[in-house]
Amino acid sequence: xxxxxxxxxxxxxxxxxxxxxxxxxxxxxxxxxxxxxxxxxxxxxxxxxxxxxxxxxxxxxxxxxxxxxxxxxxxxxxxxxxxxxxxxxxxxxxxxxxxxxxxxxxxxxxxxxxxxxxxxxxxxxxxxxxxxxxxxxxxxxxxxxxxxxxxxxxxxxxxxxxxxxxxxxxxxxxxxxxxxxxxxxxxxxxxxxxxxxxxxxxxxxxxxxxxxxxxxxxxxxxxxxxxxxxxxxxxxxxxxxxxxxxxxxxxxxxxxxxxxxxxxxxxxxxxxxxxxxxxxxxxxxxxxxxxxxxxxxxxxxxxxxxxxxx
Length: 310
Known about the structure:
By secondary structure, the chain is α+β, with helices and mostly antiparallel strands. The protein is about 45% helix and about 20% strand.
């Protein structure tokens, strides 16, 4: 069986007539067996990396800023699936929509900072369909739905873990397989709860309203955040906002804010030498004891111990 790299990447991205190569340098294999992609200087700067993980899986990590508008068409691709975290949003592409041509357009100045995982249909047969009886059609529908409301924090956390991992060999591939099963399970669970929720789906302006409220919360996480203020940003009543938020993200507003703050605290603990009390204030907590309790609940270790371990 051909690997996902052989089926998806080599026949398409590296061939002479591929329009992708008009603005990207020719992809090359590095010593870890990963393909490195660098835009031509006129078009942008940064780098992308494609990491194969066994036959069925591939991780993509990108940090590229485009100076010129970009568009390309992927021709004659085989069926595959993709879940991606880009600019804070989760997106998904189900295999049934990949057959044939896939077009992408990126404006000038766009910063493509993302991590994603692509997998072939046989991955379902090996890990989900044969063992647990989950039909591929259900997984396809769940992945397709991600683009309609891409705010699933658990999925974002898993993708960040995958993107940050330095994996090689059989052990690394086994870890990626396990994380992919976890990722797909999170997406399936979210989709089942979404379908089971009472009432009609949110209208487009309501989805945009919640996205606006989330952006506000993430930009002002170090200060006080009230439900009233966030509901106002979403142009909803507090009751409608809280219900809609949990239905479509899978967690409450308070849990989303708390987990976002803890992720920021982890970054500060890793990258600064600021005292714990200062870090607590930086992420929106007046009292260090409260911050430490929440951090331990989130990560299973106290912030001071985490810093020493890291």
